[in-house]
Amino acid sequence: MSAVLLQRNTNHSGNQMNRPTEFFIEDETVYWYVSIVDVDGTPLDADSDPTLVYRRSNGTGTTTTGVGITKVSGTTGLYQFRHNTSLDSFLVPNTPIHYEEIAVINGVTYYNRWTSMVRSVASLSAQTAQTSTLNTIGVQSNDIQTKVTSIVGKTDQLAFTVANQVDANALSGGTNPTDITNAVWNPQLDQHQQIGSTGEALQKASVETQNAYVLPISTSDPCAPRGTALTAFINGAATFVLEFKDASGAIVDPTAESLYFVVEDGSTGTDMVVIPDGSLTKTTKNISVTVPGSDNTPIGSYRWAVRTESNEKVLGYGVYNIQYAAQDDTP
Fold it and tell me: 122, 139, 165: which is the final residue of a domain?
């Protein structure tokens, strides 16, 4: 009598002796069914449950780590072979593993040897991710090429009469000479008062030097304040009456909140004088503020503002000019 070990079903695809040709170590358990039959096809039971050993490609001896064999109840010669691969930490992905099925039938030992490949889901995922990344890079490269072509189309239109200097003019692109002229000569003068600038010089030239005060001063709501220039003479006390209006033009009652008046050196951010609410003369229509002569120095152009003490809301602001006026120097 001779016997043949035939594989019937597996949880992995296979084509060599119908055994699994590969498995993934993350699957944990690989199983397949083996039928023992006589040469004429008659099922035969083994003398005892068959055994299963295997040898790793990176090892020299055989092992039975994680293997198991169970006879299927109610059958003749049908056995389930199992291998729990998670129990063997020495399995290496992408290497072969060599199995040997052993069955003893009527005292005769039969062997069936076959080889499978160890795979890893993680390595396949990495390959998939790499492929996806390469595809993405390809798409981005095409997009970059498209944009470069578009940019080159624009830069090719530039003219260079002098090397490294682009030929350009202010009239191209819809700008006309009138717009340029208006932009230079029509801006608010009080917005261009940097010390030493043309705006500062024009502001000083427009002030009536024979009058130390400007009465009354009218400013708008802080949402759109209209700056107003105040002028004092060096070393001379100066009193200013300030009236505030909201966006609708209605007079703001300055007695409703505590205020303070401040003059600041715009170039350094240093406060030259701060006059608190208690030193202001306030009515329901305006405030009167007196800057001592000792604070009206040195000659120059500075910034002033009136703010609320509670939340720093700006009621008015503008340029604060200190100018020279003749004085008696007789001892």
Answer: 122
